[in-house]
Design a protein that fits this description.
- The complex is a heterodimer of chains A (111) and B (162).
- Chain A is an alpha/beta fold.
- Helix content of chain A is 40%, strand content 28%.
- Chain A has a 5-stranded mixed β-sheet with strand order 1-2-3-4-5.
- In chain A, helix 1 packs parallel to helix 2.
- Chain B is α+β, with helices and mostly antiparallel strands.
- Chain B has one domain: Heat Shock Protein 90 (2-Layer Sandwich).
- Chain B has 5 helices and 5 strands, in the order H-H-E-H-H-E-E-H-E-E.
- A 5-stranded antiparallel β-sheet of chain B has the order 1-2-3-5-4, covered by helices on one side.
- In chain B, a hairpin with a 2-residue loop joins strand 2 and strand 3.
- In chain B, helix 4 runs antiparallel to helix 5.
- The radius of gyration of chain B is 19 Å and the shape is globular.
- The N terminus of chain B is likely disordered.
- Classes of the chains: A alpha/beta (111), B alpha+beta (162).
- At the A-B interface, helix 2 and helix 3 of A face helix 3, helix 4 and helix 5 of B.
């Protein structure tokens, strides 16, 4: 798994590869560091995530709670069909705001 | 009658001149088995084996199998060998035209996977607890799950129709 941060009015963190029980801990650390580094609003671009287990959902839930606890929000953009299926299986469309593209996620923040 | 159909199919198959396809048909094994240490780094290796084994299978079925195996193996790695020296996990895949049979063998503590209560699909982030989704995913992703604790270890058998 790799992450790339694109700074902007709202920073976009692009995630690629697989999010499993090994890599989810690393992802939580990256998201949380960013949120507490003065960026309470975050967009996670999931277009290049090839696989995600329940460990990835825990990372998303923890990051949503973390961002909201400091007055921001953690939103997702562009999950692939496989990832979207996992999100739907777990009812995550009620937990995190998910947009079809980064542009739409950016617009949702009023940027 | 069935011989005739088979012969016809074979003739058509060869007449397409797909030498590579024919080669694959004859050489891709219908059974694969691999053993890796019971540690989180092995999860990616098990996923790779499944991907290689299921090359010609619908990507949704492939994803379901990878997800179910990943969740079972994660449970074994994080909980099965608790307070024990971690040993290994063996993954076996068997292919037949209608289904894929998967078995996962470990020598950790016995653990009978049971179907958890339904996920509350309407809960908000604040109402959700972190954790507990893995086993739900296993039961949602495969068509059957059988568990057996034997003298030589635990065997979790999954079946996925294709």
């Amino acid at each position: 798994m790799e992450t790339t941060i694109t700074p902007g009015k709202i920073d976009v963190i692009a995630v690629s590869g697989a999010i499993d029980a090994l890599t989810a801990a690393e992802l939580i650390a990256i998201f949380h560091k960013h949120i507490h580094d003065g960026h309470p609003d975050v967009i996670a671009d999931f277009s290049q995530v090839e696989f995600m287990s329940s460990a990835g959902l825990r990372a998303i839930l923890a990051s949503v709670k973390e961002a909201r606890s400091v007055g921001g929000d953690f939103r997702m953009a562009n999950p692939s069909a496989g990832i979207d299926k996992v999100l739907k299986m777990a009812g995550f469309h009620n937990i995190v705001k998910i947009y079809p593209s980064v542009q739409e996620a950016l617009a949702s923040f009023g940027s | 009658m069935s011989d005739y159909v088979l012969l016809t199919d074979a003739t058509q198959f060869i007449s397409t001149n797909s030498a590579t396809l024919l080669y694959n048909q004859l050489t891709v094994p219908s059974l694969q088995q691999i053993t890796h240490p019971a540690k989180l780094e092995s999860l990616a290796l098990f996923r790779e084996l499944i991907q290689d084994f299921c090359q010609d299978i619908n990507v949704e079925v492939l994803y379901d199998i990878q997800l179910a195996v990943d969740e079972i193996c994660t449970n074994i790695i994080l909980h099965g060998y608790k307070d024990m020296e971690p040993a290994s996990i063996t993954l076996k895949l068997e292919f037949d035209p209608a289904e894929i049979k998967i078995s996962i063998t470990d020598t950790g503590h016995p653990f009978q996977p049971k179907q958890p209560p339904d996920i509350n699909l309407h809960a908000t982030a604040e109402e959700r607890e972190i954790g507990g989704l893995g086993l739900s995913f296993v039961f949602m992703s495969v068509d059957d799950l059988q568990y057996e604790s034997t003298a030589s270890g635990n065997i979790t058998r999954l079946l996925k129709k294709i």
